[in-house]
Amino acid sequence: MATVKIEDGYVPSENEPFMNDRQREYFRRKLVGWKADILREAQDTLVALQTENENHPDLADRASSETDRAIELRARDRQRKLTGKIDAALSRLEDGSYGYCEETGEPISLKRLDARPIATLSLEAQERHERRERVYRDE
């Protein structure tokens, strides 16, 4: 995909063709930036975990430190899964399917994509999916 120039402060609008070059570039930048932030945070976590002093003489301090580490590692695992979803969204941008609901094929609203750039379902399809999930979970 050729790089498209978009001005600072550009926000996709309903008044322009859906998933035009500017919108695709806007979302590509948003996704790439988000992934870079996640990877930077993961690196910071790795450095912090490697440099943390594990010689806590107090048993309570050691337990607290282990709990903090476990929480941090769980959060990093969620972030790792998120980077996979970001990569999938970037692939959809490349193949032209980004921004369209996987269930209905209809465009996903720009507001939804701006808030959740990895969205694969329209708001309506997502709500139906969550209702079905709740019904199966309650049975």
Automatic annotation (TrEMBL):
<feature type="domain" description="Zinc finger DksA/TraR C4-type">
    <location>
        <begin position="96"/>
        <end position="131"/>
    </location>
</feature>
<dbReference type="InterPro" id="IPR037187">
    <property type="entry name" value="DnaK_N"/>
</dbReference>
<keyword id="KW-0963">Cytoplasm</keyword>
<comment type="subunit">
    <text>Interacts directly with the RNA polymerase.</text>
</comment>
<dbReference type="InterPro" id="IPR000962">
    <property type="entry name" value="Znf_DskA_TraR"/>
</dbReference>
<dbReference type="InterPro" id="IPR012784">
    <property type="entry name" value="DksA_RNA_pol-bd"/>
</dbReference>
<protein>
    <recommendedName>
        <fullName>RNA polymerase-binding transcription factor DksA</fullName>
    </recommendedName>
</protein>
<dbReference type="InterPro" id="IPR020458">
    <property type="entry name" value="Znf_DskA_TraR_CS"/>
</dbReference>
<feature type="domain" description="DnaK suppressor protein DksA N-terminal">
    <location>
        <begin position="23"/>
        <end position="93"/>
    </location>
</feature>
<keyword id="KW-0863">Zinc-finger</keyword>
<dbReference type="Pfam" id="PF01258">
    <property type="entry name" value="zf-dskA_traR"/>
</dbReference>
<comment type="similarity">
    <text>Belongs to the DksA family.</text>
</comment>
<keyword id="KW-0479">Metal-binding</keyword>
<dbReference type="Pfam" id="PF21157">
    <property type="entry name" value="DksA_N"/>
</dbReference>
<comment type="function">
    <text>Transcription factor that acts by binding directly to the RNA polymerase (RNAP). Required for negative regulation of rRNA expression and positive regulation of several amino acid biosynthesis promoters.</text>
</comment>
<feature type="zinc finger region" description="dksA C4-type">
    <location>
        <begin position="101"/>
        <end position="125"/>
    </location>
</feature>
<dbReference type="InterPro" id="IPR048489">
    <property type="entry name" value="DksA_N"/>
</dbReference>
<keyword id="KW-0862">Zinc</keyword>
